[in-house]
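Priority: medium. Attachment 1 of 2:
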């Protein structure tokens, strides 16, 4: 059973240790180019337990994302860590799309048979990530 259709176009993005404002800025940019496959979810940290907050959304990358004009993009208050997981091509497309708005640097990757996980650092263009 080979399901290379919609599942290979699904990319999960997790933003960690960032403010709600920064998470919204990144996800708003992604929503301009790709439909959400799942609603936004905030995991941990919201109840004052001291745990780290992780913001997560899944996007359908099967549609071509359009570049966001720099004037329309949100501004980050500080660099944001992003963990991106999905099919090889879909992750590459999402990373390229993010790079049209933010300064993106890769800080690690894990490769599997049909998926890869990439850890990225996102910053405002002109900032050092």
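Attachment 2 of 2:
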């Amino acid at each position: 059973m080979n399901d290379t259709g919609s599942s290979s176009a699904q990319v999960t993005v997790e933003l960690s240790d960032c403010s709600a404002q920064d998470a919204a800025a990144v996800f708003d940019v992604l929503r301009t180019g790709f439909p959400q496959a799942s609603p936004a979810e905030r995991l941990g940290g919201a109840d004052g337990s001291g745990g780290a907050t992780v913001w997560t959304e899944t996007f359908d990358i099967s549609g071509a994302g359009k570049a966001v004009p720099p004037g329309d993009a949100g501004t980050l208050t500080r660099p944001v860590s992003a963990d991106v997981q999905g099919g090889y091509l879909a992750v590459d497309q999402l990373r390229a799309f993010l790079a049209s708005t933010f300064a993106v640097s890769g800080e690690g990757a894990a490769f599997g048979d049909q998926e890869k996980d990439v850890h990225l650092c996102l910053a405002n263009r002109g900032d050092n990530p």
